[in-house]
Amino acid sequence: MQTATPAPRKAPRPRADALRNRERIVTAAREMFVEHGPEVPLDEIARRAGVGNATVYRNFPDRDALVREVVCSVLDRTGAAAERALSETGDAFEALERFVHISADERISALCPMVSSTFDKNHPDLEAARERVERILETVMNRAKVAGQLRPDVGVGDLMVAVAQLSRPPAGTACLSADPFVHRHLQLFLDGLRAPARSTLPGTAVTMEDLRQS
């Protein structure tokens, strides 16, 4: 007599409270990494998130995994903001402005440098998150150029360098004190991106690949 082969079991979906705990941990880690740098004790992150240490380690087995998740979540949110703006208004330059200002609010320039030589900066999750943002920005900037809104001699690399330099100093170095001036200076930069350009930039448009090779 043959016995029926049991159907493969599907992996259980995470419970809603488990997902909420994970999100609280990521939010608390993002805040504390910005305030104190990536070496902030994990038990302090657990305390701010309102969860136990075991919950942190159940979700993130080590510090690298938590830093990586924080950076990926920030990249995803900034890219999604640009996509939403583009779909809501159809105005490519407005989508570009939304990305720049939300990147500053998300502390993207304070968090992304954490993925340094100490961490696996080539982890597949990070690579995928970076590629998504770059793809979105390429689309937005190309549309803005075609519409005559964006000067033609700038690239994604130019944008990211300026955002990093104008928004935040490194994490843990009183970067929050720059808040009153950040959006003012970013808007001055954005106005300088508008077409028609009033000057000719030296060199050629900078790509993300140029930045990676520099």
Automatic annotation (TrEMBL):
Keyword Transcription: yes
UniProt-recorded Gene Ontology molecular function terms: DNA-binding transcription factor activity; transcription cis-regulatory region binding
InterPro entries membership: Homeodomain-like_sf (IPR009057), HTH-type_TetR-like_transc_reg (IPR050109), HTH_TetR (IPR001647), Tet_transcr_reg_TetR-rel_C_sf (IPR036271), TetR_SbtR-like_C (IPR049445)
DNA-binding region positions on the chain: 41-60
Superkingdom as given in the UniProt entry: Bacteria
Residues covered by the HTH tetR-type domain: 19-78
Alphabetical UniProt keywords: DNA-binding, Transcription, Transcription regulation
Protein name stated in the entry: HTH tetR-type domain-containing protein
Species: Streptomyces afghaniensis 772
Lineage of the species this protein comes from: Bacteria, Bacillati, Actinomycetota, Actinomycetes, Kitasatosporales
